[in-house]
Amino acid sequence: MQGSRSGRRGVDLDDPSSYRELDPAGMVGFATDLPAQIEEASEIGRRFEVPAAFGDPSNIMLAGMGGSAVAGDFLMRLCEERLAVPFVVSRSYEIPAFVGPETLFIASSHSGDTEETLTAVRGALRREARILCITTGGKLSAFARRHRKDGVALLEIPQTDPPMPPRAALGYSLIPLVRALESLGLYPSAGRHISEAVRLVAKLRDGVHPKVETRRNRAKRLALALFGKAPWIHGTVGIMGAAAYRWRTQFDENSKTLACSSECPELNHNEVVGWELAERLPARIEVVMLLRPGDHWRNRARVDIVRKKLVGPKARVHVIEAQGRSALAQLLWTVYLGDWTSLYLAFLNGVDPASIDSIDTLKRSLARLKRPRE
What we know:
Shape: globular
Order of helices and strands: HHEHEEHEHEHHHEHEHEHEHH
Largest sheet: 5 strands, parallel
Mean pLDDT: 94
Number of helices: 13
Number of strands: 9
Radius of gyration: 21 Å
Strand content: 5-15%
Helix content: 40-55%
CATH superfamily of the largest domain: Glucose-6-phosphate isomerase like protein, domain 1
Low-confidence stretches: none
CATH architecture of the largest domain: 3-Layer(aba) Sandwich
Structural class: alpha/beta
Number of domains: 2
């Protein structure tokens, strides 16, 4: 299949008309516009006035789910080497016991109606945390406006028409928060890093757009290699580990393809043993390894050993080296390549990358439930 450009339903990746009907929501358009989205999001964040009371927190926590939480993962990993206080991401109704008046609590929900995040932010209000809500509207926006007198701040991001899925709004959910931390003195040089990211992402887009034929299109070639296989994404610890998780969830949601992700060096202490019997698995696995300049030299050595001696003999391995100087540029470049790959894999699979029928079914089922008596 590597040498072919075709998938199910007569899809030919070099003939966009063959898969245009599979994209009624315009996911290709959203992906194409990411560089402009990042620039707009940067300006939104630059104009946002962060309350002075939010400065010098003892800890930072971002509560979110799905694409909004992934932006939190990115922010947390980007801040690891520059923050002197802990930063955690919570994907839950409950909040940790440490959340209190010295906590900068970020509630992130693209729609504003994510029930886990709404429950969490109410708990943070009771704990008198310093609360920043980032959303397009919904109940979270109403919450922030209602509690403005309590010091709750609202950072509004645009909602497109038609609505943009949260996973396609990464620029909006991440970049204004980078700018907000910059204004608090917690993310120096953010503007320069954002500018580099825009340049690199735009250059990558010009090389992986549907108009670029497969032989010169890295994302199309990778999607063809993964077609009919089980993608397994390895990322070196830090921003590439966060990128690996994003690749996994994009394959899950966009491509409707079950995928796995893990981090090095942790995977060297458990997962590598599981590969000993990998040939017994019913599905052929394709491994994508995400690396970055500046990875710890021992991790680079671990990746090389895993690729050559432990995983390589069991599965084909694709190595992706992040481009860029700043961590932010490296992260967004790597994520963007994964986004395009997941879209092309969706078209090869003959599915609409925007549809999330299983999630919608789950939400409808939950909506019918009544709280049990305690």
